Amino acid sequence: MTLRFGTDVCTATTDYGTVLLDQRTGQYWELNPTATLVVSTLMAGGDADDATNALVREFDVTPAQARDDVTALIGELRAGGLAA
C-alpha cells in the first residue's frame, strides 16, 4: 500500500518530525518521529508490514503496538482528507 498525499497538502521536515499543511482548510498537522517514519516508509512504496517493521527496529515498541499505530495513523490521514 503506497501512501500519497493530496495535491493540496504541503510537507516540511523539522527537527521534531514532519509538518503537514492542508491548503484547502489551512489546518496544520504535526507528525512526531514515529509517524514520520511510518509516512516515509509508505510513501517510498512500502506497505503496512514494512512500516510496522521499521517502527519495531527504530523504537522500543512491540510488533502488535506498532501495527496498531500504523493502522491508526493511516486511518487518521485518510479521514482527514490528507492521503489516499
Task: Provide structural commentary.
The protein has 84 residues and is an alpha+beta fold. The protein is 46% helix and 20% strand. The chain contains 3 helices and 3 strands, in the order βββααα. The protein has a 3-stranded antiparallel beta sheet. The longest helix is centred in the last third of the chain and has 17 residues. It starts with 8 loop residues before the first strand and ends in a 5-residue tail after the last helix.
Low-confidence stretches: none
Total strands: the figure is 3
Summarize the helix and strand pattern as letters.
Answer: EEEHHH
Approximately what portion of the residues adopt beta-strand conformation? Answer: 15-25%
Number of continuous helical runs: 3
Structural class: alpha+beta
Keywords:
3 strands; 84 residues; three-stranded antiparallel beta sheet; globular; alpha+beta; 46% helix
List the helices and strands and how they pair.
Elements: E1 9-14, E2 17-22, E3 27-31, H1 33-43, H2 48-58, H3 63-79
